[in-house]
Write a structure and sequence with these properties.
The protein has helices at 3-21, 30-40, 47-58, 63-84, 101-104, 107-127, 133-147, 152-161, 169-179, 181-192, 200-227, 230-233, 239-242, 248-252, 254-272, 280-291, and strands at residues 94-95, 98-99. By secondary structure, the chain is mostly helical. The two termini are 25 Å apart.
């Protein structure tokens, strides 16, 4: 299957799975459930579910298991977007090409949407027959760590504190390893846990790739915020500069930030080389993360 067809198939599987897992809009409390569906369905590139499925392909994981793990990761991601857009955070009005959740509904509902999506993610991992109990517990732990104060939430706290500050490259990378990279890494490692166990060396290599992929995604995001249009992004362009946030572009400049993305792409491909053809989709996704935008 060509990459574009594979990607479309996984995106459709993710949409179908999320539609099935989310409570119906007619179920009480209707406004909350309608808002959850508004935030989670019908838009988004589903990069994290794609990475989850691609990593699962390395170890022969069943697609039905990957559907559930990918949905859990995407629920965490969507919750983070809903909260990130709130006035107390980035105060944005556009997400995935439509009004943000708090604009379409209200701030209190958006806050509850994020809370409910997060809890649903862990409910999915706990209830589904994804692996033996020990592995399932490890999955819950992995996702919780990625979402918490030593992962995504902690990275967001660092990001808020860094507004107007001049960070070093090391400090910027530390922030994004947590804010963006932690959940991308979790998507890849959780996908790999759905199939035959990988040896220690293979798991270390995959983890190395996951860390590179997380940084690559953020470098590209920073470039896009500075260089792409709102229509292309589906969210407000230029927000980082307007809010005086430290980014790879503000620190390195646009040209050197592009060079950084090229270096990370090459490093990601090198990390995947020992897996051979089994890592084809991860390799293609590495290029997609970069080339879909510039």
């Amino acid at each position: 299957m060509e990459f574009s067809a594979w990607m479309s198939a996984i995106q459709n599987r993710c949409e179908t799975t999320l539609d099935r897992l989310l409570p119906g809009a007619s179920i009480a409390p209707q406004r909350l459930h309608g808002a959850m569906r508004y935030a989670a369905l019908g838009a988004g590139k589903r990069v994290r579910p794609l990475l989850c499925h691609a990593a699962g392909g390395i170890c022969g994981a069943e697609p039905s298991r990957l559907d559930m793990v990918a949905a859990a990761v995407e629920l965490i991601h969507v919750y983070s977007l809903v909260h990130d857009d709130l006035p107390c955070m980035d105060d944005d009005v556009l997400r995935r090409g439509k009004p943000t959740c708090h604009v379409e509904f209200d701030e209190a509902t958006a806050l509850l949407v994020g809370d409910a999506l997060q809890s649903l993610a862990f409910q999915v991992l706990a209830e589904q027959d994804l692996a033996d109990p020990g592995v399932r517990l490890a999955m819950v732990t992995e996702l919780a760590r990625a979402a918490g104060s030593r992962g995504m939430a902690g990275g967001q706290a660092i990001d808020l504190a860094a507004v107007g500050q001049a960070l070093t490259l090391e400090e910027l990378e530390f922030m994004h390893i947590h804010k963006t990279g932690a959940l991308i890494r979790a998507a890849i490692l959780l996908g790999a846990k759905c199939g035959e166990p990988l040896g220690a060396a293979a798991l270390t290599r995959l983890d190395h790739f996951a860390k590179i992929a997380g940084l690559l995604f953020q470098v590209v995001d920073d470039i896009l915020d500075a260089d792409a249009s709102t229509a292309t992004l589906g969210k407000t362009a230029g927000k980082d500069a307007a809010q005086n946030k430290p980014t790879y572009v503000s620190l390195l400049g646009l040209v050197r930030a592009r060079d950084k993305a090229t270096e990370l792409r090459q490093a990601a491909h090198q990390a995947l080389e020992p897996f051979g053809e089994r890592a084809r989709r991860l390799s293609e996704l590495t290029d997609f993360i970069v080339d879909r935008h510039f």
